[in-house]
Amino acid sequence: MRKLKGVTLVEMLIVMVLIGIVTAISLPKLANTTDDLAVRSARQEVGSYLSQARALAIQNGRMGRFIRSGNTIRIALDNASGQTIVLASQDLGVGNGVTLVASPSDTVAFDPRGVLTSDASASSPKVLISRNGIADSVCVVGRGKVSISQCQLAQ
C-alpha cells in the first residue's frame, strides 16, 4: 500500500477558519493604528510649516505667515512691495485624511524677529488635527515657539 502525502480538505478548512479569526481580531486595531499614525504625521507637518514660517520671517526680515484654509496649510512671506507670496502648500485632508481646525484664527503671523504679531499673541494659536476620533494639536506658545509636545487639547 502506497502512503499518500498532502493535506485533507478538513485540515485546509481549519486553517482557513483560523486565518479568518485572526484577521477579524486584528483589523480594528490596525485601523486605529493607521488613524493614529496619520494624525501624528499631520501634526509633524503642521509643526514643520509653523516653524518654517517663523524661520523665513527671521531670515528675510519680513512678515512670515502660516495659513490654514480648510485642510490645506500654506507658508507665505511678505515681499518688498507688501504682497504676500505663498512659498509652500500641502493638503493634509488628501494626503493624510485628517481634518484641521485652527483657533483663534486661520493665520499665524510672525514679525521679522520671529515673534507672534500682537493680535496672535493675545491667545496662544493652536491647530487641532483629527481623524476618526483620534485628535492631537500643535500650539505656538510664548512669543513664537512652536510646540507639538506641550500643547493641551483642552486649551
Strand order of the largest sheet: 3-2-1-5
Task: Tell me the fraction of residues in β-strands, as a range.
Answer: 25-35%
Q: What would you call the shape?
A: elongated
How big is the Rg?
A: 24 Å
Which stretches of 5+ consecutive residues score pLDDT under 50?
A: none
Order of helices and strands: HEEEHEEHEEE
**Mean pLDDT, rounded to whole units?**
86
Proportion of helical residues: 25-40%
Largest sheet at a glance? 4 strands, antiparallel
Count of distinct strands:
8
Task: Note the gap between the termini.
Answer: 79 Å
Broad structural category: alpha+beta
Count of DSSP H/I helices: 3
Explain this structure.
The protein has about 160 residues and is α+β, with helices and mostly antiparallel strands. It has helices at about 10-60, 90-95, 120; strands spanning about 65-70, 70-80, 85-90, 100-105, 105-110, 125-130, 135-140, 145. It has a four-stranded antiparallel beta sheet. A four-stranded antiparallel beta sheet has the order 4-6-7-8. Strand 1 (about 65-70) and strand 2 form a beta hairpin. The chain starts with 8 loop residues before the first helix and ends in an 8-residue tail after the last strand.
Structure, briefly:
The protein is 39% helix and 30% strand. With 155 residues, the chain is α+β, with helices and mostly antiparallel strands.
Topology:
Layout: H1 9-60, E1 64-69, E2 72-78, E3 84-91, H2 92-95, E4 99-103, E5 107-110, H3 118-121, E6 126-131, E7 134-141, E8 145-147
Antiparallel strand pairs: 1-2, 1-5, 2-3, 4-6, 6-7, 7-8
